[in-house]
Amino acid sequence: MIRTSMIIFGLVMILSVSTLIHGAENVMIKNDLGHNKKLTLHCQSKNDDLGKWEVSDGNEFHWQFGVRIFGGTLFYCTIWQGEVQGFVFDAYTQGRDHPWGKVLWSIRDNGIFGYHSFNVDPDIFIPWPKKN
Predict the structure, then answer these.
(1) Domain extents for the chain?
(2) With 59 labelled, which of 10, 12, 31, 96 sits at a CA distance of 20 to 30 A?
(3) 40 forms bridges with which residues in the sheet?
(4) Is 54 left (phi over 0), alpha (psi -120 to 50) or beta?
């Protein structure tokens, strides 16, 4: 009984220290569509549903979280804007985004631009699907 309690206590301590060492990850999604266009998005992970949000032009939606110690943290978002309906993209994947600590997504008319930390140029570009 005492040994099991010590093992559980040790695991909790490892997870707590991991969060302190790695810090919190931050994701921000900004509506840069212009012309007062609204952006609707729904973001979630396997364990956390952040809900559906309407983001007005020039504003942003953001959240903060700790990563999993053994990897695999993933948040994905579904986007609705103009002719783009139900487009899904990975807003945060631990393997791609973890060392940066901050990911900014700029939603524009021609696609999604991703920036790590405070980079001036985008690190990632996801174009909208072509219209049929």
Answers:
(1) 24-127
(2) 96
(3) 54, 80
(4) beta
Which DSSP category does 99 fall into?
G
In 10 A of CB 34, how many CB atoms?
Answer: 10
Token pair of 23, please?
């810090």
**Region of residue 58 (left: phi > 0; alpha: psi -120 to 50; beta: else):** left
DSSP-derived 3-state class of residue 13: helix
pLDDT tens over the chain, length 132 residues? 676 555 554 444 444 444 444 578 999 999 999 999 999 999 999 999 999 999 999 999 999 999 878 788 999 999 999 999 999 999 999 989 878 789 999 999 999 999 998 788 999 999 999 876
Supply the pTM of this predicted model: 0.81
